[in-house]
Amino acid sequence: MATYVLVHGGWDGGWAWRGVARELQAAGHEVFRPTLTGSGERVHLASRDVDLETHVQDIVDLLRYEDLHDVILVGISYAGMVITGVAERTPERIGHLIYLDAWVPEDGQSLLDLIGPEVAAGFAQAAQAYGDGWRLPHDPPDADRRTDFLLKVLQQPLRIANPDAVRLKRTFVLFSTGTPTGSWGWLAALMQRTAARVRQEGWNVREMPFDHWPVLDRPREVAQLLLELG
Questions:
Q1: What's 194's domain CATH number?
Q2: 39 is catalytic
């Protein structure tokens, strides 16, 4: 039996992983799908003070208090930042890091550094116009169960310096079809660039015919991928 910890991306919560979790559990594995502070059913905890470190601590505490070891830690999209920070803090509890079309920061980078100044400026303007300067509503705003992304989690840089974390097994999965268009068209190119970079660094890299967020409409296929990689 393997232990999977599934970390959601921006605007979502642990609820988004329900279908994937059921498939993994049916295969006999233990699955946790935590919700990060200020998201999903924990939206009531959203504040100007919630940052990337808060979300890293959410997962570090889960691993500690559930006493989890040899964990397959999975992050999608924004959660790449989170699982990278968790690996820095508690590498001894992790067996495999899996990034699903997820951000992979280098030392000292924030998510805003990764997305670039033009998109970052757009996010800041949207937060100012629609989120009191600190919340970033989902686009479209009436998306089912989506909660606001917190601007501070995008702004905080991540320190990467733990040599034990560097030695962890890592896999990056590039989602290569149904890529975002319109105002999100920039995302596909950046993910392709990320895949090329980590491949050069010696990571295992896979490519799957998914759009950026397949966990809702293709949970069985995502679960099968995780079983193969685990």
A1: 3.40.50.1820
A2: no
